[in-house]
Amino acid sequence: MSDPAQPLLRAENLRVEFPGEDGVVHAVDGITYQVFPGKTLGIVGESGSGKTVSSLTTLGLTRIQGANVSGRILFEGRDLVALPDSELRTIRGNDIAMIFQDPLSALHPLYSVGKQLTEAMRAHRDISKRQAQERAIELLGLVGIPDPKRRVDAYPHEYSGGMRQRAMIAMALANEPKLLIADEPTTALDVTVQAQILALMERLQDELGMAIIIITHDLGVVAEMADDIAVMYAGRIVETASAEALFANPEHPYTWGLLKSIPRLEADRSELLVPIPGTPPSLISPPSGCHFHPRCAYAQPDHSRIDPQLEPVPDDPGHFVACLLEPEARRRLWAELQEGRRPQEAISEVGLGGEAG
Amino acid sequence: MGEPDLEVAPNDDKDGAAGLRKDGDALVEVRDLVKHFPITKGVFVQHKVGAVQAVDGVSFDVRRGETLGIVGETGSGKSTTARLVMRLLEPTSGEVRFDGQDITKIKGKRLKSVRREMQMIFQDPYSSLNPRKTIGSIVAEPFAIHGLLSSKGERRKAVQELLETVGLNPEHYNRYPHEFSGGQRQRIGVARALALKPKLLVADEPVSALDVSIQAQVLNLLRELQREFGLTLIFIAHDLSVVRHMCDRVAVMYLGRFVEIGDAAELYRFPRHPYTGALLSAVPVADPSRHGGARRLLSGDVPSPANPPSACRFHTRCPKAQELCSVVDPELEEKPASRGLVTACHFPLDREEVEAIGLPSSSQSAPSE
Fold it and tell me: How many cross-chain Cβ pairs, A to B, lie less than 8 Å apart?
């Protein structure tokens, strides 16, 4: 089987551009990430950060939309970017499966759930309809759909939201994939159902040993699910680390902004929320230099000229950040923010730029 | 089906935990509010074959200047409750008193004048603004409807002031909604709601369609405006962390009923209803070191409100349910050891059970791990 020390999937300098009427949309702008067998990678970002496009590209689904793709996506030694469609089709839905945010639009309304499940199996395996039907019932039971024998012949509209998401997971698991890509799998669901689905994904990962890439805007969800986390902003990865390191010692001002703008369940009403000012930039003409500089409270004049690269964080192996601030200044700023100071107060405490420069 | 006894204010809390009181300090008083949507069959002659019991006997007060949160899963009736309070829907029965006046029966001019005092902010900032109107005319529309500020200059000035209040550039008066981002559109919605200086603002999932970094902007804005204008706020959301941040008191709704209502800090620290406990334990916490707590997972989905379970409606999914729960309807009452919180449950959670759930908010009292 796969070597746990070797990444199962590794994207290298992946770039995806969509030519459009108003100009080229730089949806994914040179990102590198990897996921190991049996592990979970969380990709966090807001809408328009490129997190979904990068995973659609993994499955070759952006080519169809006329995207220009460069870089490499290595999956078990094969480069998915260079692979012809016919070969990609044998991987898609078989070795790599995907579940989407909105199960109602991802399931075909006119076919029964069982029919869609058996079709997914028979596309990749030489099994009889009977066998496939039996396996479909087994899978629906596995993902916790009550009375699977009866429900297998039901149509998607007869399922509740949580059951549809379970049916999608069953379909994704039909061929025991090595990698499951889950794009906002619980965003449309209530918290109670979300907890059920997340628990289900974790259980299945343990049982089947698959790797998961979970894409979400919800920091709570990645904290619960992911071993490693990549934070995306405007088509780039700005920070990547183990889940523990990212939440304990975040390095990038954008990550700080995300962490400080969500209210915490355990805090009281006096908790200060520090929103990130402004809105995410256009990907047609992203800001020069550090893409985040127009919204960054700590940006210095030269940050609009210099393009930051992902660099290792000192004394924290596996933690990388693309930020032009000095590591020492970042550490002190985060410590000030943790004390409950506002960005401006933190800046004057640390003496960023200004007097120091 | 017992009549909710409005006199049962607990003696150690002069306001009563549910905030039901008689001294006129409440801006909104809701009593036994019911909304059943008929289910009909037939093509030419419509037969009523049942009813979706969206809201089924809800009583609460909203005190002046406070923020009352309503939480619950999809289909719990929280939005219907809000629309009934705004009288955007006609109740099947029950009373909604606004500023002392029952607004469920009034019509015409009187209704219009009440509507001035209450405004709503909607979830979807994309569909709640007319794409063919400039934001100037969108925000000025309340003035036009109520025949205020008839001169163009006055209106323009008022609108520009409002835009500034909500943090938008007043120069953008002549732009169209599509030129704004989601967060900015939500600000436009807030500006429109504030135009007539309402007493009550009802916000139905105001930030759930927004990106994380934008959410905080709108939440901070709402809190600032509340302080500045002394607004009373009903805040509906499914995100329990957001509700915690915004609300003084919180009501938990399940299948058309309030199962627990009271002081927000108490509710998050020591919830008594098993459903509240399950909701709180289901919230993913942005802290990987907290991983692996004894999370209480609810099984199954919310039952259909067209055919709700008997007696306590939560008994079909409740880990503590006993036979009594399917026979006798529990009433909202303050449980021993609760402070400022009323709970409709025969077998409320005790401290040990709440600690076992491992709520992040109860960690002061319970050492984690």
Answer: 143
Q: What's the confidence (pLDDT) of residue B67?
A: 95
Residue A78 CA, chain-centre distance (Å), reads 22
Q: For B286, which of A259, A273, A279 is closest by C-beta distance?
A: A259
Choose from A190, A233, A319 for mutation: most chain B CBs within 10 A.
A190
The dihedrals phi and psi of B107, each to the nearest 5 degrees, come to -140, 175
pLDDT at residue B21 in the model: 53
Strand-pairing partners, residue B29, are: B61, B97
Yes or no, beta carbons of B360 and A265 under 8 Å apart: yes
The whole model's pTM is what?
0.86
Query: What confidence category does residue B368 fall into, taking pLDDT thresholds of 50, 70 and 90?
Result: very low
Q: If you search the block for the tokens 């030269």, which residue do you land on? A: A302
A33-46 burial by CB neighbour count: b if 16+ within 10 A, else e? bbbbbbbbbbbbbb
Per-domain boundaries in chain A: 1-95+177-250+311-325, 104-176
CA distance B114 to chain A (A): 31
Stretch A318-326: mean pLDDT, rounded?
95
Chain B (188-217) residues lying within 8 Å, Cβ to Cβ, of chain A: 211-217
In chain A, which residues have their Cβ closer than 8 Å to the Cβ of B247?
269
Tell me if A220 and B299 make a contact (CB, 8 A cut-off).
no
A96-99 β-sheet, strand order: A96-99, A179-183, A211-216, A40-44, A228-233, A236-242, A320-321, A311-312
- Pair A264, A79: CB distance under 8 Å: no
CB contact under 8 A, B285 and A220: yes
What pLDDT is recorded for position B125? 81
- CATH class for the region spanning A1-95+177-250+311-325: alpha beta
Contact A263 B279 (CB under 8 A): no
Lowest mean pLDDT among A45-54, A221-230, B87-96, B262-271: A45-54
Looking at CATH, the fold of the domain delimited by B103-198 is given as: Rossmann fold (3.40.50)
The interface pTM score, or ipTM, of the predicted complex is 0.84
CA angle, residues A256, A257, A260, in degrees to nearest 5? 80
Nearest to B1 by CA among B323, B311, B344, B322: B311
Question: Cβ–Cβ of B289/A193 closer than 8 Å?
Answer: no
Q: What is the pLDDT of residues A285-317, one digit of tens each?
A: 899 999 999 999 999 999 999 999 999 999 899
pLDDT digits (tens, 9 = 90+) for B155-203: 999 999 999 989 888 888 899 998 888 888 999 999 999 999 999 999 9
Confidence of residue B291 (pLDDT cuts 50, 70, 90): low
User: Across the interface, do A271 and B245 touch by the CB < 8 Å criterion?
Assistant: yes
Contact between residue B281 and residue B361 where contact means Cβ atoms under 8 Å apart: no
